[in-house]
Amino acid sequence: MRRIELKKQTLKERLMSPTTGLPFNIGRGVVAGSALFGIGALCYYGLGLSHSAGIYERSMVWDQYVRDRIHTTYMYFGSGLGITAAAAVGALRSPAMMRMMTKNSMMSLLLTMGAMIGTGMIARSIPYSEGLGAKQMAWAVHCGVVGAVIAPLCLLGGPLILRAA
């Protein structure tokens, strides 16, 4: 009768072997649970269900200029996300842009870094004024450049980057 010996895996072999998917599922569960807990806590405190004053009650105490600045900040944040996403989609659908970005990777890397830094410096150097002006246009151009830089990453990263987006 032949004796079959089972070889015990070493720690290195266990660490280098392909995963079963369980760690990713546990991670997803932790992230989903944390997000649910955070949203629940925001609702609990924000709607005034706790014993302390909620955000709504405290907002009545704030001066009008504070509320206006908060509103403007969130408006710029949301608009920036929208402009960046629209520019990324536009660049991703443009064959000429994708050809330029993928043909000579070192040159396009330097060009995009220079464009991002340059447009950011221009947007920061213009003084702020209310309404639609030169600073807002420079900021929109900067958001568009950031979107154009993000677009080729979708080709390089594949499903992982698309999921993150």
Automatic annotation (TrEMBL):
Spans traversing the lipid bilayer: 21-47, 74-94, 106-126, 138-162
The keyword Transmembrane is assigned to this record: yes
Pfam families in the record: Bax1-I
InterPro entries: Bax_inhibitor_1-related (IPR006214)
Major localization listed first in the record, in broad terms: membrane
Keywords for this protein: Membrane, Transmembrane, Transmembrane helix
Localization of this protein: Membrane
GO cellular component labels: membrane
Protein name: Growth hormone-inducible transmembrane protein
Membrane topology type: Multi-pass membrane protein
Top-rank taxon: Eukaryota
